[in-house]
């Protein structure tokens, strides 16, 4: 691929990243859902959780440039007690992330910065490589 095409592609990717709020991100939540081989919970339950998460983040103005990124993960490898979620940069892993629990995670953790302790599996902030 010629250099000019690579530069154009990179610029388009940077524009998309900006549009979805990457430069403004304070936290990022990954939610295990729509699994190829559902194990932590059934597929419909996980998709209901995902739809709730997307809708609430948008309603609260937290999507795009609101500081919260969200990603649908096919599997977070804790294959029980789901839907499973993890929030970074803290590295807080959550269990049973149905809509009522997600509402608490959104308001208490994503916005307020405090983990929802009764739903935490564990916390492990990733070390910064130097």
Mean pLDDT: 94
Oligomer: single chain
* Main β sheet profile: 5 strands, mixed
In terms of DSSP E residues, the strand content is 15-25%
Low-confidence runs of at least 5 consecutive residues = none
List the helices and strands and how they pair.
Blueprint: H1 3-19, E1 27-32, H2 43-59, E2 68-73, E3 85-88, E4 92-94, H3 99-111, E5 120-123
Parallel strand pairs: 1-2
Antiparallel strand pairs: 1-3, 3-4, 4-5
Helix pairs in contact: 2-3
Explain what the structure shows.
The protein is of the alpha+beta class. The chain is 36% helix and 18% strand. It is built from three helices and five strands, in the order αβαβββαβ. Strands 2-1-3-4-5 form a five-stranded mixed β-sheet, with helices on one face. The longest helix is centred in the N-terminal third of the chain and has 17 residues. The two termini are 32 Å apart.
Brief overview, please?
The protein is an alpha+beta fold. Helices cover 36% and strands 18% of the residues.
Features:
globular, 5 strands, 36% helix, alpha+beta, 130 residues
């Amino acid at each position: 691929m010629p250099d000019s095409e690579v530069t154009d592609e990179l610029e388009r990717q940077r524009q998309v990243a900006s549009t979805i709020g990457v430069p403004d991100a304070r936290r990022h939540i990954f939610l295990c859902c729509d699994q190829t081989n559902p194990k932590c919970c059934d597929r419909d339950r996980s998709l209901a959780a995902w739809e709730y998460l997307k809708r609430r983040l948008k309603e609260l103005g937290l999507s795009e440039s609101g500081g919260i990124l969200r990603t649908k993960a096919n599997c977070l490898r804790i294959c029980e007690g789901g839907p499973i979620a993890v929030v970074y940069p803290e590295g807080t892993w959550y269990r049973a992330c149905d809509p009522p629990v997600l509402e608490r995670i959104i308001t208490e953790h994503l916005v307020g910065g405090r983990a929802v302790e009764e739903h935490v599996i564990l916390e492990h902030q990733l070390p910064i490589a130097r």
